[in-house]
Each structure stands twice: as structure tokens, then as C-alpha cells.
Amino acid sequence: MPSLATDYTVGDSTGWTTNMDYSTWTSGKTFAVGDTLVFNYGGGHTVDEVSASDYSSCAVGNSLTTDSSGATSITLKTPGTHYFICGVPGHCGNGMKLAVTVGGGGAAAGGGTATTPTTPTGTSTNTPTTTPRTTINNNSSSSTISPSITMLLITLVMALFMFSLP
Ligand SMILES: [Cu+2]
């Protein structure tokens, strides 16, 4: 179920700069799809979304997206971990790296994998036959009684004729 989207200012009042520990900033925060990260920074920095390996090694030049406007808003559109670094050489190594883990809609409860092993294999076939069975009974109740009564009447009439004829 969708919740209200939240805007997070990265680094709060400090913003997006060197000599910060953004893992401290993300700790205790819960990010959801639809939330927005707002990077505020001065000149000489960029916000690059990168792969996990580029985040770990602080490799620049392979960014998925990049912006250097000074005020970068990035809406988190998919669950999973999103990685951001500054594309200026050396800045990522000085702390300008941010990893944000976005939970899915159902994953926030923590029970996403619990339903898998309990699924039985044979019971699902019983469910769809219940609905047509009641309609068949309603239609056949009027049509099956009348032929059997007709057969009984014919047998009685035939028996009466057989005894009354001689
Ligand atoms: Cu920078």
C-alpha cells in the first residue's frame, strides 16, 4: 500500500560534501519507493548514481546518471539498494558516497519469504469445481425427476394394460 512520500535532505544541514559519513546519516532511516533524496552542494561536486561495485571501489566515469546542478533531487523508484557517489576524483574516497536501501511495499513487514515453503500442491483443484457444481444440481433437479416419474407411470400403465387385456 502506498504511503506518503518523504523528502530526505542528504546530510541534513551539512549537505553533500566531503568528510562526511553518510552511512551514519542513513542509519535509522527507512526509505520507500517514491521517497526523494535531495542533495544540496556547492560547486565542484556531482551526484552520480553508480553500480554497487563502482560504489565500493569509488570508480568514476561509469555513472548511470549524473548531475552537477547543486540541488539534485532523485526519486527512489525501485526497491533495492541505490548507490551514489561524487564523480570528482578523490571525493568519493573522502566520504562522498551514499548507499540507500529501498524496501518494497510488502518487504517492510519482513515476512516476504515465509509464504513460499507452505504452499500445498493438490488442494488448488478443489476450489474451482465448487461453483459449477451448484448450478448443475439446480438445472438437473427438475429434469432428472420428471423422466423417472414418466418412466414409472409408463411402467404402471403398461402393467395395467397387461393385466386388463385378457
Ligand atoms: Cu565532490
From TrEMBL:
<dbReference type="InterPro" id="IPR003245">
    <property type="entry name" value="Phytocyanin_dom"/>
</dbReference>
<dbReference type="InterPro" id="IPR039391">
    <property type="entry name" value="Phytocyanin-like"/>
</dbReference>
<keyword id="KW-0325">Glycoprotein</keyword>
<dbReference type="InterPro" id="IPR028871">
    <property type="entry name" value="BlueCu_1_BS"/>
</dbReference>
<dbReference type="GO" id="GO:0009055">
    <property type="term" value="F:electron transfer activity"/>
</dbReference>
<dbReference type="InterPro" id="IPR008972">
    <property type="entry name" value="Cupredoxin"/>
</dbReference>
<keyword id="KW-0479">Metal-binding</keyword>
<feature type="region of interest" description="Disordered">
    <location>
        <begin position="108"/>
        <end position="142"/>
    </location>
</feature>
<feature type="compositionally biased region" description="Low complexity">
    <location>
        <begin position="114"/>
        <end position="142"/>
    </location>
</feature>
<dbReference type="Pfam" id="PF02298">
    <property type="entry name" value="Cu_bind_like"/>
</dbReference>
<keyword id="KW-1133">Transmembrane helix</keyword>
<dbReference type="GO" id="GO:0046872">
    <property type="term" value="F:metal ion binding"/>
</dbReference>
<dbReference type="GO" id="GO:0005886">
    <property type="term" value="C:plasma membrane"/>
</dbReference>
<protein>
    <submittedName>
        <fullName>Plastocyanin-like</fullName>
    </submittedName>
</protein>
<keyword id="KW-0472">Membrane</keyword>
<keyword id="KW-0186">Copper</keyword>
<keyword id="KW-0812">Transmembrane</keyword>
<feature type="transmembrane region" description="Helical">
    <location>
        <begin position="145"/>
        <end position="165"/>
    </location>
</feature>
<feature type="domain" description="Phytocyanin">
    <location>
        <begin position="6"/>
        <end position="104"/>
    </location>
</feature>
